[in-house]
TrEMBL record:
This is BTB domain-containing protein. It comes from Obba rivulosa. It holds the Pfam family BTB. Residues 23-94 form the BTB domain. It comes from the Eukaryota.
Length: 321
């Protein structure tokens, strides 16, 4: 086991939550010690099982008669994991449980990957897959990014997509990348600066940050292009239109209302957002003929799906689809 943080055991504090008097191992994370059970750790982790069964020179230190294992994780991260393992919170990972904080899942994925607690890691990844999917059929239910996050089974903030990208890279779970990178591309300064969580600085790898900056620009172009294309009175519309002279000015007005009078409104929302309510407003109080209306909506639907497909190209994921 790598010893990353040589905190002298005289300067550490005991975890109030995880100090079992009959515990059989002392874990040291940062400046905090945790007295827990070897058996439980071994049951879930190949790495801990090997560590406890094969004599390890680095765990020769002892505290209260227990071997000491120093970990590089922060105390907060370790608490998340121990609450699931030792606190009997395995139910937290049931697929029907809603509102689990993202930080817990992130700690489980990272810890589970490093210490080969594969069952825990994969259950946590499965929950994240409900938010970060790459299937087009699910995307049809995607309305607004803000709603997508608000109603997710995981309690997650936009900036935490940075962590999701890093976890996806770590575990080679590439299916999470299109939406996670897309969400990162919608960040402002945090895209570059990252943020602090549980004693860890979460930041994108420079290569991923570059992808996001480039994608942000290309997606803005896409959404602007779609706005003009969908209200354009093209051949597909003129073919079935009931009255060209009636519809053309109305379509032009609708485009102005959605894109020009409220300039910035469409761009204010994300390129993947549905903005259906803009469409309703755009055709009020007088709407073009039903054929032009439905054709406009169809162009919008097809355009959104194209933007979704573009994510795979912009983020260089097209080989994985
Ligand atoms: Zn028409």
């Amino acid at each position: 086991m790598q010893v990353d943080d040589q905190v002298p055991t005289s300067n550490v504090i005991r975890s109030e939550e995880f100090w079992y008097p009959d515990g059989s191992v002392v874990l040291v994370a940062g400046n905090t010690t945790f007295r827990v059970y070897q058996g439980l750790l071994s049951q879930h982790s190949v790495v801990f099982r090997d560590m406890f069964t094969i004599p390890q020179p680095e765990i020769a230190e002892k505290m209260d008669g227990c071997p000491i294992v120093r970990l590089s994780e922060s105390p907060q991260e370790l608490v998340h994991v121990l609450r699931v393992l030792h606190g009997g919170n395995l139910n937290l990972l049931r697929p029907d449980v809603e509102g689990i904080p993202f930080a817990i899942l992130a700690a489980l994925v990272r810890f589970g990957h490093k210490y080969e607690m594969l069952m825990l890691r994969d259950q946590a990844l499965k929950l994240l897959d409900q938010v970060f999917y790459d299937t087009p059929s699910k995307f049809t239910e995607f309305t607004f990014l803000s709603e997508h996050l608000d109603y997710a089974p995981v309690e997650i903030h936009l900036r935490e997509a940075i962590t999701v990208v890093n976890l996806a890279r770590l575990t080679n779970t590439l299916s999470m990348l299109p939406l996670a990178l897309y969400m990162c591309s919608q960040l402002d300064e945090e895209l570059i600066l990252g943020f602090e969580q549980d004693g860890r600085r979460e930041q994108l790898d420079p290569a991923d940050a570059v992808l996001c900056v480039s994608a942000k620009q290309r997606l803005s172009h896409d959404i602007t292009h779609l706005l003009f294309r969908m209200f354009e009175y093209d051949d597909s519309m003129s073919k079935h239109c009931a009255d060209r002279d009636f519809c053309v000015p109305l379509l032009h007005d609708a485009m102005e209302r959605v894109g020009l009078e409220n300039y910035g409104t469409v761009l204010h929302f994300g390129p993947l957002d549905g903005w259906d309510h803009f469409m309703e407003e755009a055709f009020e109080p007088v709407a073009p003929c039903s054929s032009c209306q439905s054709r406009t909506c169809k162009k919008k639907k097809l355009g959104r799906m194209q933007i979704w497909r573009n994510l795979f190209v912009y983020f260089k994921l097209d080989n994985q689809t």
